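User: We ran a pulldown and think these components assemble together. Before we commit to crystallization trials, I'd like a predicted model of the whole complex to look at. Sequences follow.
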Amino acid sequence: MRAGIIGTGLIGRGWATAFARAGWSVSLWDHAPGAAALALSSVKMALDDMASVGLVADPSAAAARIRVSDTLPDALQDTDYVQESVPEDAEIKRGVFELLDRYAPAGVPIGSSSSSIVGSRFLSEIPGRDRCIVAHPANPPHLMPVVEVAPSLWHDEAFVAEVCGLLASIGQVPVVVRKEIEGFVMNRLQTAVVNEAVALVARGVIDPADLDAVMKHSLGLRWALMGPFETMDLNAPNGFLDYATRYGHLYQSMGRDLHVGEAWPDDALRTIEDSRRQETPRAEVGERMRWRDRALMRLMSLKDKL
Amino acid sequence: MRAGIIGTGLIGRGWATAFARAGWSVSLWDHAPGAAALALSSVKMALDDMASVGLVADPSAAAARIRVSDTLPDALQDTDYVQESVPEDAEIKRGVFELLDRYAPAGVPIGSSSSSIVGSRFLSEIPGRDRCIVAHPANPPHLMPVVEVAPSLWHDEAFVAEVCGLLASIGQVPVVVRKEIEGFVMNRLQTAVVNEAVALVARGVIDPADLDAVMKHSLGLRWALMGPFETMDLNAPNGFLDYATRYGHLYQSMGRDLHVGEAWPDDALRTIEDSRRQETPRAEVGERMRWRDRALMRLMSLKDKL
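Assistant: Here's a predicted model for the assembly, 612 residues in total across the polymer chains.
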């Protein structure tokens, strides 16, 4: 099986890593000359890192299955699946999808990594729109396996199931977002947290570093293992409905008091930036990013064992 | 050092485990006859479980430091810190704090596990209110170490620092919530996620099990390692402010579209309950709760190593 990876920024590289790890061949193409070759070396490092925690058996063999393509038609040749990860701009995506639909083999599904733009805004006029669908990954895709498969009105259930099956076969976790909605699900949940967090700092309720501590030393630990509904289900003697009956009024009262719809005040953003630079000086950011990726791999490996 | 644990439900037991693990002696007292003795056996199991992943060196010695008290004054004798974990009801807490303040040794701080009621609603008329303060843990406290220390207007900085220092000395992670606000910080962030999640199910956007999958296979993985601000800081080339400039408009547009202030529709709650029972039948819930606690221990142990 061969995946065509179109656009080789952070997201495209993660997709390439995920497909290569799963035993697929991969073709890389990027609009910018030299970008795909650069991406290949980054993917090789990711495969080596994953091998070091037991997540890839043979990283050299996986890397050897990846080729860099100089032209878009070449990258699409002999593919069984194509994933677009170009910039988050409806016009750019529409232009790229016209080419992808023209050159990809007949019948091959083409996924878009769109993280907030709904499919009907850039796919509805593509001749082969039936095979073009939003398949939004987390960032980076090879370390956070969820993919939001978000059909548009013209897609049928069989095609959605085909794409989900393909993604599941490489170890990703597809979920179906059944209605076109801004931000799909993942980014809406993230926005709810981030906007309230910024508002709490803006009001002087908590320091930025302490807010981060609340997440990583409480809520985040549980959410790494189970989602909000299972969390609630296990936190009342008789399950989710029991929990909702006991505590629903608190959530609803608190919900009306949240500030998630407010703009981000400039001085709060500056306070957060200053706090971040105290915690992680600019010179150490690269190292911290590598720490994060290795930590995510260790976490992935732990979850495999649990 | 001795901690007096007042109220021995899930939260009180977790506090007892955390103090005993840190080498403290612990006195347990509960209003209901026999409850504290029952709690002790549960704490012993938790200490054994933690020992099995290397989080407690000598669980028998830790357990031997815990005693069950038949009377409240006995439980408070010779304590260096007292933690109240009685039901979430301002009247009940006020009554208990009158007794705690009367019988606890002079100068000993008394923390309240209040999870949403602000301190001024039940502490302002306690004679020794200067030493009584909200210290809200996550649930369970011994597996999720954050404690929200939430002073009221009458508390001075030195006392807040003393309580934070004491909690940090037993391995918890104290954060200061500087203003009295409903739900403090942790439960506001949780509410933001839960309310949006319920609304998305209510609108038919996503199935409950898939919503949980989005959290545990993407956002939750990262949030177990770093909070939302550090996440953003590491996701743009030039840090948090750069991220805010690039993506702030998306968060603010999405934020205005969130449904966190809406009531929970009954049919959505029923859909979620049905989904939970499909995923985890009633008979398997107890086993799943033990899985969760053991998984949290493994995660805690991994984070210690990272």
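Chain A touches chain B through 103 residues (CB under 8 Å). That may be worth checking against your pulldown data before setting up trials.

User: Thanks, that helps.
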